[in-house]
Amino acid sequence: MLSVVHQPVSTLFNMKVFLTVVAALVAAVAANSAYPKPAYPSYSKSYDYAPMPYVFAWGVKDDYTYNNYAHQESSDDKGYVSGSYRTLLPDGRTQTVNYKADDYTGYVAEVKYDREAKYNDYKPTAYKPAGYYTAPAYKADYPAYKPTYSAPAYPKY
């Protein structure tokens, strides 16, 4: 005859927790060793170069297309950048932005507008509804359809 040994519930619960923890640790170790380390090299050099001084400027003025804008900028050997740019706006004003930037204060801009904005006067026009739609009249320039075959003869029963 078969005998069954009854163990307390807390012992079975502790055994299940223990097996779950062991399984998780085995999975973690297996996952860690399953993939090798990346083959690319690690670069330990730092490419932090000292700021290089520069100066540039450009501009466009085309009266035919109403393009009028420019930009100039300069930098020193300490990373301090200053410059300005301007553009002709559609309302006739010129927007000029003077800016300064460095590592401590960030980007600081001063915006100015030259002249007064000009807008065309609004002149409403009287509403004029479109004419009513009339369907086009087609002329029948084609011959009437007439079948070219004889009607089928069905057998009589």
Explain what you see.
- The protein is α+β, with helices and mostly antiparallel strands and 157 residues long.
- It has one helix spanning 9-34; strands at 54-62, 67-75, 81-88, 94-102, 106-114.
- Helix content is 17%, strand content 28%.
- One of its GO terms (molecular function) is structural constituent of cuticle.
Observed structural traits:
157 residues, alpha+beta, five-stranded antiparallel beta sheet, 1 helix, 5 strands, flat
Write the layout of secondary structure elements.
Elements: H1 9-34, E1 54-62, E2 67-75, E3 81-88, E4 94-102, E5 106-114
Antiparallel strand pairs: 1-2, 2-3, 3-4, 4-5
Shape: flat
Query: What is the helix/strand order?
Result: HEEEEE
Global mean pLDDT: 81
**Biggest β-sheet description:** 5 strands, antiparallel
In percent, how much strand structure appears in the residues? 25-35%
Stretches with pLDDT under 50, minimum 5 residues: none
